[in-house]
Amino acid sequence: MAYETIQVSDAEHVRTVTLNRPKELNAVDQRVTRELQKELRSISRDASVRCVVLTGAGRAFCVGQDLKEAAAAEQPPDLTSRLRDGYNPVILQLRSLAIPTVASINGVAAGAGWSLALACDLRIASAAATFVSAFGKIGLVPDSGMTWTLPRLVGEAKALEIAWLSDVISAEQALEWGLVNRVVPADELAAETRSWAERLARGPTQGFALTKRAIHAALGRDLESQLAYEAMLQGVAGRTRDYQEGVTAFIQKRKAEFTGE
Ligand code: T3D
Asked: Are 239 and 208 in contact (CB under 8 A)?
């Protein structure tokens, strides 16, 4: 599919989606959300894709809303509609994809750009990456899911500190606070991301999808209903070919070859 603001490539069942407005630090305008929605829809229907990587071209991951587009819009702008029609579907699509999603954070992630990274399942960051809520500096509320993801990762007080002060957070600090899974040297980010994503793509894709559903559901449930939910999901996992292959490979003392079926 041809896009203006994102680039898409495939390798080893991994689809890499690159935000591609490097001169604008990958700021998000209406085309970006439209194209991301379209691409994520396409991924959700493509069984050959078993992991998604989201990254940015150039020196930034993504600096959030294109404030130049925002400044040129009607005043006061209808931000509710812009979020409802633009960003929110992207966040929900990322969150509900039945395959692992990995944000490969190559540089600064700000505002809704950071929210995009937070909506991915896993985050690997370059040591040169930085994070800034930015919303607090322009009088806005963190959006695109940030008020939902941040407190889950760092707790209420830290989430409020991050949101109110909009300080620049280093990759090391982000790792310490649990905001990213890994930090790697800048020149190793692409290779480390590829190796991680390919490993995920070679996994038991359906089992991974069911695991994602279980973990997502867990924070909103009590233990009893989570146990029942796990048992139901396990029933589904137990009927996959990958489960059979995993057990057979264990018995035969060889590496399992999962196909995602
Ligand atoms: O409006 C709605 O629809 C509601 C939704 C809102 C969602 C949001 O994301 S609101 C938050 C928007 N983002 C920001 O407020 C971030 C603004 N940018 C910054 O604070 C800084 O640029 C950074 C901390 C991200 C990076 O700083 P630095 O020093 O590395 O770069 P810089 O020099 O500030 O910026 C470089 C260029 O990128 C510069 O352009 P110029 O002067 O060279 O022509 C700057 O204007 C441009 N730029 C940076 N961020 C944005 C941007 N242009 C448009 N929109 C941006 N968000």
From this structure: no
The answer to the question of residue 257 being in a domain is no
Q: What is the domain-level CATH number for residue 227? A: 1.10.12.10
Closest among 185, 170, 166, 190 to 129, alpha carbons compared:
170
> Is the pTM above the cut of 0.70?
yes
Ligand 1 center to residue 29 CA distance, Å? 12
**% the chain with pLDDT above 90:** 96
- Asked whether residue 187 falls in the same domain as residue 235, the answer is no
The amino acid at residue 233 is: L
Which numbered atom of ligand 1 lies nearest the CA of 86?
3
Number of domains forming the structure of the chain: 2
| Residue range 37-49, pLDDT digits in tens | 999 999 999 999 9
Within a domain: residue 260?
Answer: no
Which among 13, 2, 23, 73 has a CA at the least distance from the CA of 258?
Answer: 13
Distance (Å) from CA 245 to ligand 1 centroid: 49
Q: What domain range is 240 assigned to? A: 205-252
Give the Å distance between the CA of 39 and the centre of ligand 1.
24
Task: Give the tens place of pLDDT for each residue, 112-121.
Answer: 999 999 999 9
